[in-house]
Amino acid sequence: MHPGSVGWGAEVLLESAWRLISADDFRNPEAARNALRQIASWWEEACRSAGISEPMPDVPGWAETLQRVLREAPLREAVLSAVESFIRNSRATFDPFQLFERSPRALEVLGRLACGSPFLTQTLLADPQCLASLTLHGRTADTKDREQFIAEAEQCLRGATGRVGRLRELRRYQRRQLLRIGMCDAFGLMDLRFVTLQLSLLADAMVQCSLTLAAAECGVSAEQISVIALGKLGGEELNYSSDIDLVLICSEQTAQTQRLARLLVDGLTDNTPPGFLYRVDLRLRPWGEAGPLVSAPQAYADYLAQHAELWEKQAMLKARPIAGSAALGTGFL
Predict the structure, then answer these.
(1) Domains identified in the chain and CATH numbers
(2) I want to staple 257 with a disulfide (CB 3.0 to 4.6 A). Which of 104, 176, 250, 285 is the partner?
(3) Are 225 and 259 in contact (CB under 8 A)?
(4) Element containing residue 297 per DSSP (H, E)
(5) pLDDT in tens, 84-127
(6) What are the beta bridge partners of residue 91?
(7) What is the pTM of this model?
(8) What is the distance in angstroms between the CA of the first residue and the CA of the last residue of the chain?
């Protein structure tokens, strides 16, 4: 139901909400009331834009949902702030109230994320259109393998031009997948094992796509190096904000492979809109930060045998190749 079909007045919304939500539910009742007043004002503007000028006493469905979500939320201020910010950020591109009417689940998702994950909340607020994609289209809870993530990401990159534009689209795809997985997590559609597996496979795919872009920039094959994951990513136990521990090996150390490695790392870590893909920890490579970005297998093996600390050797227990040459990585391990 479009908001214009009811024309509900802002003051009616405000008073109705306040009767159902006690001021005692908020640490700062005045701030909460101001937020509700702002939301009600935006609703009234949406009605006027739809050509409805006379308010009616009927309560719109989205308002009832918001009241319920606020009553049930353990962190009501966080939920109300997220809803207000979402409406503010989305009004220029689409009608958020129409989304809330068509899909009450949208407000429920906002509420769950606001209470459970500031990181995912900020990710969603930076890309409000993603909430419509998550709640209006089916198959949100589908699990995906690495190849499916890669294929979908490559599809998103087809319309982008230049390295910066392609990385921007890759980051946008990654954030939408993080939100999809987070939504499934919040509503119990995936258990913890599947959540961490999906996050890990998504990271595998993003590293492979970043390597492919870096190789295209260098004019070489991505198979020149192998990217090996350690730590949580190596064990397929990644969470939403984990660093990814990587080491890079190549069959032959050249200036070209070093440049390829540098472009890969920059593509993963550069903080440009809409943000970085991952924080990358390369300190487990031979000689840590003092060593080259990419090492030959024999040089790496010699380092492990002669110089590595016990914890560096233990880190290899979860090692697995995730991008580039699988044969090179598997042969080394």
Answers:
(1) 3-125 (no CATH), 146-332 (3.30.460.10)
(2) 250
(3) no
(4) helix 297-306
(5) 999 999 999 999 999 999 999 999 999 999 999 998 999 899 99
(6) none
(7) 0.86
(8) 58
